[in-house]
Design brief:
Elements lengths: L2 H24 L10 H23 L5 H9 L8 H23 L3
Helix pairs in contact: 1-2, 1-4, 3-4
């Protein structure tokens, strides 16, 4: 798998699972309604872990443009690869957010 593909999968998992836990806490007819901020923070932590375990070995597991830029500044990531990471992360985040909107039928 390429770096681009791994970043897309990891970022998409992060956004879908993270948004899912927020929806569970905030939506009126869900089982987790009003369960609080601790559930949201734990859910986002699990979302990051899931993405990292799924494809972290292949891409370095940045899944966030700030992390990718920081890794490049610390010379842990080649500057030539930064554009691949950024393009994959932005594309995956936009696609996952649109997919989440379609799945939950928000208006």
């Amino acid at each position: 798998m390429s770096i681009f593909g791994a970043e897309v999968i990891g970022t998409a998992l992060l956004i879908l699972l993270g948004n899912g836990v927020v929806a569970c806490v905030l939506l009126n007819l869900s089982k987790g309604q009003n369960s609080g901020w601790i559930v949201i923070t734990f859910g986002w932590g699990m979302a990051v872990m899931t993405g990292a375990f799924a494809v972290g070995r292949m891409s370095g597991g940045a899944f966030n443009p700030a992390v990718a830029i920081g890794a490049a500044m610390m010379k842990m990531l080649a500057f030539q690869q930064i554009w691949i990471h950024l393009a994959a992360e932005f594309a995956a985040a936009a696609a996952a957010a649109m997919a989440f909107k379609v799945i939950t039928k928000e208006s």
